[in-house]
Amino acid sequence: MPTKAPTKASPAAPEFDLETDNGKRVSLDDFAGKWLIVYFYPRDNTPGCTREANDFTKALPLLKKLGAEVVGVSKDSVKSHEGFKEKMGITFRLLSDPELEAHKAFGAWGVKNMYGKKVEGTIRSTFLISPKGELARVWKNVKVNGHVDAVVAAMREAKA
Questions:
Q1: Pairing of strands 68-74, 35-40
Q2: Which of 38, 49, 78, 108 is labelled catalytic?
């Protein structure tokens, strides 16, 4: 269930500076004045992550019309991201976080339950960051089916 950050004095989004699928670096500052959707996913070329990337790709024209950019973040390498983007036709940037700095700063890394076993890994999460750099909405332990629709609805609500 999505949790909404407080309207007043929303916490600042964590800073990040990561390499993109094309080898360039981007940081939170590069999106100043824009809405930004940052989603963390476990791994390129896996069923759930592929569905989520495809859903964001399909929704991207509408999200851009609403004034939002999208970036996906995983611990996969830039080379892995390049192949994943090309294979799946992903139209937004994928960021590589092999040191897990952004994962940990956003709280998207930790202990989770996989098939009844406690393991440490990526906690599928999405963050809607306002043009002021504040967390406007946070989704933790995301279930892929219907998630992008919820993000689009939140973006519409934010723009209303």
A1: parallel
A2: 49
